[in-house]
Design goal:
With 142 residues, this protein is an all-alpha fold. It has two domains: 28 residues; 75 residues, no CATH class. The chain is built from six helices and no strands. Helix 3 crosses helix 5 and helix 4 crosses helix 5.
Length: 142
């Protein structure tokens, strides 16, 4: 009888540990409920102040790397711009930056927007500046 009670206690402890691990990995039932509000808040309309802050941050990145030529470069530029100041969550900040960089890629925003933000884009990409070393995009791969 003592072995059965000990086995049941060990089994309950094991199930509790497995449940805790699954919750920490995001596979538990509570993680799906907490992720939904974050997704809803990131899809909310972007305010003019958020758009202006994103343009300022991105134009500084564009001065270094130039306008993104593909989706991978656009995603990297949004990461390099960092998080927007204020009360934005990291997810909301990433959403705003990704949306604004897509506007640059779609030619909805351009040189004049960066000039207005105080960070004009380089004008002649065909003639590289030989006085400075080439800057390569850091894709996190080594």
């Amino acid at each position: 009888m003592g072995r059965a009670v000990a086995a049941a206690a060990v089994l309950l402890l094991l199930l509790f540990v497995i449940r805790t691990i699954l919750r920490n990995l995001g596979l538990g039932s509570t993680s799906s409920n907490t992720a939904a509000p974050a997704a809803e808040s990131s899809a909310a309309p972007i305010s003019d102040a958020d758009r202006k802050a994103a343009i300022e941050s991105l134009c500084k990145v564009f001065q270094i790397y130039g306008l993104p030529k593909n989706d991978s470069d656009a995603a990297e530029d949004a990461r390099n711009a960092g998080e927007l100041a204020g009360s934005q969550s990291p997810e909301r900040s990433a959403y705003i930056l990704t949306t604004v960089v897509a506007d640059f890629r779609g030619n909805k925003l351009g040189q004049s927007d960066c000039s207005d933000a105080g960070a004009p884009l380089p004008t002649n990409e065909e003639t590289p500046d030989t006085s400075a070393p080439d800057v390569q995009r850091d894709n996190g791969q080594q």
